[in-house]
Amino acid sequence: MSARILVIEDEALVAMELRFVLEDLGHEVVGTASDAHTARRLVQDTEVDLALVDIHLSDGPTGIDLGRELGQDLGVTVLFMTANPGMVRNGVAGTIGVLSKPTDERAVQTAVDYALRRRAGRPVEYAPPELQLFG
């Protein structure tokens, strides 16, 4: 199942690596954003199925509010990817969960597949162990 994915990550090398992994998996990366403003503009300008959102962006710790906005108000499926998963330990409304960084290609693949199955309303037997789900 191919999807249109937005990578919201302020570390250029991490964003580039995620882009390559996602494209190798057959997904279309519609863009990358290093700050909340750019991410909002990209979501307004193009259709996004899934956003992978870091918590700390170039404009500060804006990822949590951005994830909530994308998930609740704009209908984008949101997975956080962060080295600070404790910051979202209690969950964020409108988002699925958090994948801890650093991570590997397999963990990204299984987390993205899980999120896309949920988005499509398809049966999901279990969540990948690397993905901490929000209640």
Question: How would you sum up this structure, described in words?
Answer:
The protein is α/β, with parallel strands linked by helices. It has helices spanning 12-24, 36-45, 63-73, 105-120; strands spanning 4-8, 28-33, 50-53, 77-82, 97-100, 131-133. The chain has a 6-stranded mixed β-sheet with strand order 2-1-3-4-5-6, with helices on both faces. Strand 1, helix 1 and strand 2 form a beta-alpha-beta unit. The radius of gyration is 13 Å and the shape is globular. It starts with a strand and ends with a strand. The model has no long low-confidence stretch (mean pLDDT 95).
What keyword list fits this structure?
single chain, 135 residues, alpha/beta, six-stranded mixed β-sheet, 6 strands, globular
Summed up:
With 135 residues, the chain is of the alpha/beta class.
Indicate the structural class.
Answer: alpha/beta
Fraction of helical residues: 25-40%
Mean pLDDT: 95
Strand content: 15-25%
- Termini separation (Å)? 25 Å
Kindly report the spatial arrangement of strands forming the biggest sheet: 2-1-3-4-5-6
Tell me, what's the shape? globular
| Biggest sheet character | 6 strands, mixed
Order of helices and strands: EHEHEHEEHE
Number-wise, the strands total 6
Give Rg in angstroms: 13 Å
List the uncertain runs: none
Please count the helical segments.
Answer: 4
Any chance you could write out the topology, listing elements then pairs?
Blueprint: E1 4-8, H1 12-24, E2 28-33, H2 36-45, E3 50-53, H3 63-73, E4 77-82, E5 97-100, H4 105-120, E6 131-133
Parallel strand pairs: 1-2, 1-3, 3-4, 4-5
Antiparallel strand pairs: 5-6
